[in-house]
Amino acid sequence: MCNIKKIWLALEIGNSQLHWALFNGEILDFTWDTEYLPESVISQLAQCQTLNNLLLAIFPLHQRTEVQREQKEILAEAFFSSPPLFLASVVPSQTTLWQTYPNIRVITLDQIPLRGVYPTLGIDRALALWGAGKTWGFPMLVIDAGTALTFTGADDNQCLVGGAILPGLGLQIATLGQKTGQLPLVETPNSASLPTRFALNTPEAIQSGIIYTLIAGIKDFIEAWWCLFPEGKIAIKGGDRTLLFNYLQTLYPAIASHLIVELNLTFWGMREIAMS
C-alpha cells in the first residue's frame, strides 16, 4: 500500500458499532462512533465529492463544528473525490455494503506482518496487537474489553503466541437475564465502585458473581503471560476498559500499575498498514 501523506479515514466495523478515525498523515485527529448505517446511506456516502461533505454525513453533530474549525485549511484542500478509507471489519455483511465506496482499502489478515497467524484470527485482534506492539514494543498482550473479552499476545519476535475469547461484561450480564426464567435483567455497572461480594439481593448477586470472577480471570491471564514473558507488556482497550481497569486498581493495584490503557489500538495498527 502507498504511503498516505494527507487526510484519510479509518473505519473499524465492530460487532455492535462503527468506529471511525480521521487521520492527517500519521496524526490521529479525531475518533467517534456511529451505529450501523443503512445501505441507502452508504450508497450516498460513496457519492460524496469532498471530505467536508463526507464528514457532514458521518460525523456526530456535537463535534462537527470542532473538526471543521480545527481542520479548516485541510478541508479546504480536500476537493479530491472520496478520501481514502481504510476498513477493518469483523462483520462480513457490513464489509460487503462498504465495497461500494470508490476509494476503499479493505485490510486483510495477510497484510499484517505478525508471524504465525492462523486464518480465522479476527482482524480487529490482529490490528490491535500489531498497533500496540509497534507503539510500545514486543512481547505484547492485548486485552480487548468489548462485546467479547479477548486476550491476544505476540512474543519479542512478533510471532503470535495465541489468546482466548469469552463473553464480555455486558454480554455476560445480559445473557444471564435473557436465558433464565427467574433471574432479572440487570444493567451493566457504570461505577468504579465494586459491588458487595456477598450480596443480599439478586441483582447485586449477579453483578458480584460476574464481576469478581471476570476480574479474577483477567488477573490469571496476566500472571500466566508474565510467567511466559516476565518483561512482557500489556495493553487494554474496548468499551469496558476503564471500568475493568478501575476494578483491577482496587483489587490488584500492583497489576493495574503495569497496564497500558488505550482505546485506539486498532487505529494504531491501521496506521501502520496505511503508512507502510
Automatic annotation (TrEMBL):
Superkingdom: Bacteria
Chain sites annotated for binding substrate: Y118, G122, I123, D124, R125, T202
Cofactor(s) required for function per UniProt: NH4(+); K(+)
Quaternary data: Homodimer.
Family stated for the protein in its record: Belongs to the type III pantothenate kinase family.
PANTHER family: TYPE III PANTOTHENATE KINASE
Protein name per UniProt: Type III pantothenate kinase
